Amino acid sequence: MSRAKLEQLGIELPLFPTTSVGSFPKPDFLMKARGDFAKKLISRADLERVERQATEFWIRQQEKLGVDVLVDGEMYRGDMVAYFAENLEGFEIGGLVRSYGNRYYHKPIINREVRWKRPITVDWWKYAQSLTRKPVKGMLTGAYTVMDWSFIESYPDRRAATLALAGEIRKEVEALIQAGAKIIQIDEPAVSVRPEELPVAIEAMHVTTDGLPAYFITHICYGAFEHIYPEMLKLPVDNFDLEMSNSGLDMLALFKKQPYTKDISFGVVDVHSHLVEAESLVEQRLRQALETLPKEAIWVDPDCGLKTRTVDEAIAKMQALVHVAQGLRN
Question: Which CATH number fits domain 3-76+121-144+155-329: 3.40.50.720, 3.40.50.10490, 3.20.20.140, 3.20.20.210?
Answer without folding.
Answer: 3.20.20.210
